[in-house]
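Fold it.
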Amino acid sequence: MTENYLNHRKPSYRLLLISAFALLSLLNFSCKKDAPKKSNLTGISAFSLTGHDAVVFAIDQNALTISNVDSLPFNTSPAALIAKFTSVNNSAVTVNSVAQVSGTTPNNFAQTVTYQTTAEDGVTVRSYAVKVNIAKVDPKTVAWKQLTANGGYGPYRTLTAGVLNNKFFAFGTQGVNTGTFSSNDGITWTTVTATDNNAAVVPVAERQTAVFGFKNKVWLLGGHVPGAGFSFSYVTNSVWSSADGITWTATPRVVTPVGDNIWEGRERIGATVFQDKLWVIGGNRYPSFGNVNSNGVPLNDVWSSADGAAWTKVTAAAQFTARSNPSVLTHKNKLYVIGGKNASNTLLDEIWTSADGATWTQLTVATKFTGRWGHQVVSFNNNLFLIGGRTADGIQNDLWVSEDDGVNWTKITAGDPRVLPGTFTGRAYFSAFVHQSAIWIIGGEFQDANGYTYRNDTWKGSLVK
C-alpha cells in the first residue's frame, strides 16, 4: 500500500518542480522588465566663471554655444579660468577627454573650448563651443582729436565755453571787443546777437566765469568790465542768465554790498553747481591799474544761491588760503578747490574738499601734481583729469589723472592710453567740460617770449569702448 501511494504521488512532485521553475522564470522576467532605463538627457544648463560671477554667459541650446555678453575686464588672463556649470541629469562633462569638476577644473580660454557632455546611457553626447570674451581695449583709453584748429571766431583773451540744451556756446571778450557764438558740433560756429535787459551786448565783461545747465540756463558771473570813454573799468557782481544764449537777464550791480545779500564785485570767480545750487567760491578783486593780465587780491569767501539772484554767504573765509584761478568743481558729491596762486605768488598743489561749502578739509595728497594756476580739472569716468595751466616753468600742455579722488596724481606720458597728442598746445584760462561721454577743451591763452597768443580751437577726448 505504501509503495502504491508513493508511486501515486511522484507526478505531483514533478509538477511542483515545474511550477516552481516557471514561477522563478516569471519573477526574473518581471524584475528585468521593471529595471529603470539610463537617461539619454544631457547638456549644460548654467555656466559662469569663478571670480567673474557678475558676467552673464548666454547658452544657445540650438547652436550649442556658450559666450559672455559683457566682456571680462581688460588684461584678464584667459590661461587658467575656472568654470562653474550645471549639467543636465548629472551628465559627465569633459574637455579634451579630461573630466571636468564644476568650480575646480581650470582651462585655457585663449581660444574656443569645447565642453562635451555625455548622458547616463553613455551614448548620447552634446558638445558646446565655449568662447570667453575679454575686453581688448584698455577702458582708460581716451581718444583725443582736434576737431578744429580755428573755430572762425576771435580769438579772444577771455573765452568761456560749454553746452546748453545740446548746443555749444562760446563767449569771447578782449576789451570792448566781444562776441557770442553757437555751434551744433563744436566745429562750425555761428555768430549770435546776444543782448541783456539793459540793451547791453553780451558778454559784457572779461575774466568772467560761465556755468552751464543750472536751472536749464547758462550763467555768466561777475568779471572785469572794460572802461569806455572817460569811465574807468571795474569788477562787477552782476549775474547774467539766459535760457537760449540770445536773450539775457542781468542782475543789478551792487557797488557797495551791505550785509550778506550779495558778494562784492570780482573777476576770475570759481563757480560750480552743487546740491542744486549755484556756488561762487573766491575770485579776485580789481587788479592793479585795471590790468586784465594781472590778478587782484584773491578771496576765499563762499556763497550759494538757489536761483542765481538771492545769495547766501556760506562762509566769509574758508579754511583754505585765498588764491587766484584754482580749479573749482563738483566731484562725487563734494566741492573741490584744486591748486591756484596765493597772494604771495606761490603756486599751490593743494586740494581742499567740502560736503557743505562751510567746512573745508585739506586732502592729504600722497603723489602731487606740479603747483599751478589757470588750469582746469574735470570729473570724468570717476577720475579727476587736470589739464594745462601755468606753472613756474610757464604755460603747460600736460595732463594729470587721479584715480582715487585726488590722493595720488599721475602725469600722463607717452605709452599711457590717455595721453594728449603732441600737437596739443599749452594753454591757461581755457574751458574744459564733459559732454556726451567726452572731455571737451576749447580756447585758452598762451604766453612766451613773444607775448600773448589766444586759442580758438576745439579738442575732444572720448573714452574708447
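DSSP finds one helix and 36 strands in the chain.
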